[in-house]
Structures are given as C-alpha cells and as structure tokens.
C-alpha cells in the first residue's frame, strides 16, 4: 500500500482504525462493539493486545464507526522500518458463533491541509486523507494483513544488522547478561545513568517530579530487596522474528522479566505513586523487550 499522494503533498504518518461491531436489529444507527480480543503485530513482532467489551460505539460526522483500536504507525516505535512494513490486525471474538462486521481503515497524515468549498460556500477539510478501507462481514477469528510503506519512519542502524535465524545457548546467556546490565541500572549509584537511558526511550516521561518519585521508590525497594533480580533463563522465552530483533518475554504469561511484585513494593513502604513510577521504569526495560546483534557480535537493546 503506497503512502505518497499524487497531489505532491508529503505524508508524515499513517493513522489506522480497526475493530468489530454489530448493529442493533431494531435500530441500525446503534452500533455495539463485539466482545473479544484485538491483537496487532508489526513485522512479525508482537506489539499490542487489548480486550473489547460490548460497549456502544459512536459514529463520526462522516457516518464512520469509531472503532476500538485507533493509532498511528509512528507510535508503534522502532519496530517500524523505513519502507515496507507488514501489519497484521487480528480479532478473536469471545463468541465464535457470532456474526459481525469488521473494519480496517487507513488515512494519511499530510504536511498540508486540503480545503474544499462546500455547496453552501464554506470550506471544509484538514490534513487527513483517506487511503484505504476494508469492511467485511465475518464470523469467528479473523486476521487482516497489510503491507504499508512508511517512508516517513526513522531509518535506524540496527535495521540493517544481520537477521537472526537461530540462537545458541551462548546467545541466550549473552542476552541474559545484557538484561542483567539493565537490571544493575536500578541502584542509587547508577541512578543518573538510569535516568539518562529512560529519557532516551519513548515510553517513560522522566520529568523532575517523576525522577523524585522514582528515586524515593527505588531507595525503599532496595532496602527490602537489595537488588532488582532477573527471572531465571528457564522462565524466559526468546522469539525469533526472522528479522534483526529477538523478542524476550516472560514464558507462559504476561509480566516483567524481573521479580517485581506489587505486593512486595507495598510491603517495602512504597506509596501508590512511587510504586507506579517504579513499575513504569522497569517496564521500559523488562516488558517484551527486544535485542539485536550488531556486526561486532554484541547484543543491543533496540526496544
């Protein structure tokens, strides 16, 4: 799916909307979200998963249904490559026998607004330009795969590292060592470096107030637990994407790759805000993280 328009305007991003719904049999203008699960994968890497319930959905001024998954390509982070990217939107209904409508829409975000004169003499428009829409009647599990060109995405050096097709036991131990290095950042002595790395990411907003909460929470946590301890290698799962990155997940369940329990944080005396900030900082390094091997054979955290 090409993203550059013919009019000469430049595409800055792509917005997407995805979801499943049913219409009220008595009032077709009433739209209800279908209960189930939405999964979005980008370039064969797990990115996002969310539950949907049966809440009413609204319609826009153009009578489009406001779908439960709304986002844009750049917000997906470093997993997006400059050039072609494979996106898979999947929906798993809670009731596999239910018939429903499924929609996937893409719009360009342009660098210039386009205004058109209406029949009433006024102007309307904006910097969004509809690109493609898919609307089907479905039943059961469904997946829609699209390849989109993201020429506006950042071209990162690791995107050009050699792809990883297999992992040796030595590779797993080297990845564990790289994770250990990130866990060691969670100490008072390494606090300035921790803040520096958190600021380099996109998920954690390390404002001065947040930094104070993080330091207080970390001090309390370390008095009780001494260190942020990694899970054992046996409790981690290493997923190959066929590309440069290796995904590292907690095996068998969602969760951190370290032993950080909310109850332990509370027992250590952390306030709710301190515990939330500490968990957010830990999540940046230890929740579905990814590493790539550079040409020198060293593993680098890439997201």
Average pLDDT figure: 90
> What is the H/E string?
EEEEEEEEEEHHHEEHHEE
Share of residues in helices: 10-25%
Uncertain runs are: none
| Quaternary form | single chain
Helix count equals 5
SS elements, strand count: 14
Number of domain modules:
2
Largest sheet: 6 strands, antiparallel
Shape: globular
How much beta, percentage-wise? Answer: 35-45%
Q: Based on helices, strands and strand pairing, what is the structural class? A: alpha+beta
As a whole number of angstroms, the C-alpha radius of gyration is: 23 Å
Distance between the termini: 26 Å
Describe the structure.
With 303 residues, the protein is an alpha+beta fold. The protein folds into 2 domains: 140 residues, no CATH class; 145 residues, no CATH class. Helices cover 21% and strands 37% of the residues. It contains 5 helices and 14 strands. α3 crosses α5. The chain starts with 10 loop residues before the first strand and ends with a strand.
């Amino acid at each position: 799916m090409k993203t550059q328009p013919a009019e000469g305007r430049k595409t800055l991003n792509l917005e997407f909307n995805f979801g499943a719904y049913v219409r009220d049999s008595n009032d077709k203008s009433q739209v209800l979200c279908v209960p189930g699960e939405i999964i979005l994968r980008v370039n064969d890497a797990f990115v996002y998963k969310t539950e949907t319930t049966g809440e009413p959905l609204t319609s826009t001024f153009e009578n489009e249904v406001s779908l439960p998954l709304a986002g844009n390509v750049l917000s997906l982070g470093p997993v997006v490559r400059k050039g072609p990217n494979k996106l898979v939107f999947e929906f798993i209904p809670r009731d596999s026998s239910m018939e429903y409508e499924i929609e996937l829409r893409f719009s360009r975000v342009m660098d210039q607004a386009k205004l058109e004169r209406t029949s009433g003499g006024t102007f309307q428009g904006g910097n969004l330009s509809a690109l493609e829409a898919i609307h089907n009647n479905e039943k059961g599990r469904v997946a829609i795969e699209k390849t989109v060109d993201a020429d506006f995405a950042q071209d990162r050096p690791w995107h050009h590292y050699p792809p990883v097709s297999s992992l040796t036991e030595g590779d797993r131990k080297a990845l564990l060592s790289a994770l250990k290095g990130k866990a060691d950042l969670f100490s008072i002595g390494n606090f300035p470096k921790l803040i520096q790395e958190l600021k380099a990411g996109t998920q954690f907003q390390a404002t001065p107030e947040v930094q104070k909460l993080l330091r207080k929470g970390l001090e309390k946590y370390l008095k009780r637990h001494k260190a942020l301890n990694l899970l054992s290698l046996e409790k981690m799962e290493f997923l190959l994407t066929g590309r440069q990155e290796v995904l590292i997940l907690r095996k068998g369940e969602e969760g951190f790759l370290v032993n950080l329990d909310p109850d332990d944080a509370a027992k250590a005396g952390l306030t709710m805000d301190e515990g939330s900030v500490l968990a957010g900082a830990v999540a940046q390094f230890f929740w579905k993280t990814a590493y790539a091997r550079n040409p020198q054979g060293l593993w680098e955290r890439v997201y």
